[in-house]
Amino acid sequence: MRIGNLLNRVAGAAVLAFVLLVTSTGLAIWWNARQDARPASDAIVVLGSAQYNGVPSSIFEARLEHAIALYEEGVAPVIVTVGGRAEGDEFTEAEAGREYLANGGVSRDALLAVEEGVDTLESMRVVATAFGEHGWTSAVVVTDPWHAMRAERMAEDQGIDAESSPTRQGPAVQTRGTQFRYILRETAAYLLYRATGESVAGAPGIG
User: Fold this and answer.
1) Beta 43-47 vs 51-52: how paired, if at all?
2) What pLDDT was estimated at residue 6?
3) What pLDDT score was predicted for residue 173?
4) In angstroms, rounded to a whole number, what is the distance separating the alpha carbons of residues 21 and 31?
5) What's the whole-model pTM score?
6) Where are the alpha helices (DSSP H) in 85-202?
7) Angle 198-199-203 (CA atoms, 0-180°, nearest 5)?
8) Which of 69, 103, 114, 157 has the highest local Cβ count within 10 Å?
9) Cα→Cα distances 102→58, 105, 184, Å
């Protein structure tokens, strides 16, 4: 066999393997987005998103409302909000989330704001530290459907026994076109994380 033909076959196999990897990852994200795990856990962790002068964005609000439903269902006795402050912001995402939940009827004794984290990976790292301080080991992670698989994986990699219960409301699930864009973005972000162990900045809740 000529070297040229061998190289072409190797290149073709590599391209095929890459396509299969991307496709299978996208399908896994799509499948995971349709799951809803609600085991009894130590805490419900709500990943932050944009807030405006202390008022959660529509994406963030949908997550918080879902967390309230899980809390009222008795999934966990504590809700943890996580997320730092963007440049120029007066409030952190975690703080805005905590106040929304408190105003929504959740006891402040059942709320913990972890006011750090600029992306999903950093958020999971600081949440894991908080879990260690409180002796917690298990969590139900609340985020958008397409973000759930990567968020759950990052939590597990930080030593948290994590399941995900994504919200079914909000802009991230409004149209099929939006869903497709989120799946493509999450596929790239998930593969980057698995390859490098690092996160990537993106749209709110995607980094």
Assistant:
1) unpaired
2) 66
3) 60
4) 15
5) 0.86
6) 93-103, 120-134, 148-157, 176-196
7) 170
8) 114
9) 17, 5, 35
CA-to-CA distance for 159 and 31, rounded, in angstroms? 24
Give per-residue pLDDT as tens, 143-187. Answer: 999 999 999 999 999 999 999 999 988 665 667 777 788 889 999
Short-list 163, 157, 155, 144, CA closest to 203: 144
CATH number 3.40.50.620 given to 32-196: yes
Rounded CA separation 121/143 (Å): 13
Distance separating alpha carbons of residues 100 and 68, to the nearest angstrom: 10
51: Cβ contacts below 8 Å, ≥ 6 apart? 57, 60, 89, 91, 93, 96, 97
d(CA 115, CA 119): 12
Three-state secondary structure of 100-132: HHHHCCCCHHHEEEECCCCCHHHHHHHHHHHHH
- What ranges do the domains of the chain cover? 32-196
